[in-house]
Amino acid sequence: MPFTILHTNDWHFSTKNPVSRTDDYNEELFASLDNLLTLVRHFKPVAVCVAGDLFHDKDRAPWRVLIRLLTWATAVRAERCEILTIPGNHDEKHDQFESSDRTPYGALVASGLFTDVSRRSVLIGGDEGTQGRPGAIWVYGIPWPDGADAGAYLTIPQDRATLVMAHGWATPQGEPRYGNWCAKYDTLAGANPHVKLWHFGHDHSDNGVFALGRRTQFVNIGALCRGALDSDTLVRTVKVAISTWDELGLADVQQVALPVPPASEIFNLTLREQRAKEQQALTAFVERFKADLGGGLMSVRYEDILARTPLDAAVRAKVEAYIAAAEGQS
Predict the structure, then answer these.
(1) What is the pTM of this model?
(2) CATH architecture of 3-263
């Protein structure tokens, strides 16, 4: 009997509004989750897979957010639909997987409504009343920081992995991102021919659904949020993916766009542009500082570099504040 799975990732519920948002950021996220619940009731999936970064802040979350998430999860589970998750880098402290049970993410898992599949396989789908559950598939999770380690993709159990959720960079080309390792689609498929669907989180940009011949498909649809991180784009379509499975395996993957307000209604675009320019200036200053360190750290005074670097007053104030904070910790 065919069944479906709903795929989403990178919710980034936060303790405060991103600086350029003019609306209530968490409210937009909850509106998207309401739309997900509508899709659950329509498509009747056996599971919702969430590939990490459910929260933005690593060590706290407003109680009202946690309570509403648990209420939402209760409604999803009432539809006979499991919620399978892995922690992302924003769900852990100091990039340590073992810390995830002491974060807001851990509170969701402790509720019993969210099932963490990190480093293990969970059987879903198929006909429960039939011995062996024909058509059922195994879901295996690769949490952060394993998702940024090439070795983690070489140890996926061959007898218990049909769908893999991972929190890490992955693209068709496999180009490094921000100095981090990035998985290449065909390399993953070649090393793991038993895996029919990969679902990636971590990358907020929309890489869509990529089919590698008839062997493997990759769901890399970007974040559910807009504006939680500076790298997120204003015009990106917010979407989820829905995979369909039958007795032969993966049959189809479709993308479903979610309705969200236009950027002009929820962002202060002037402020956002100003902050982007400030960040570019800070980056340029850091690069200039690195270049001047060619003779070694003791051969240059940051005061001299700061004095001869043209910076906007607001950016200069930030640099001086960062330096003062660093000196206070040394």
Answers:
(1) 0.84
(2) 4-Layer Sandwich (3.60)
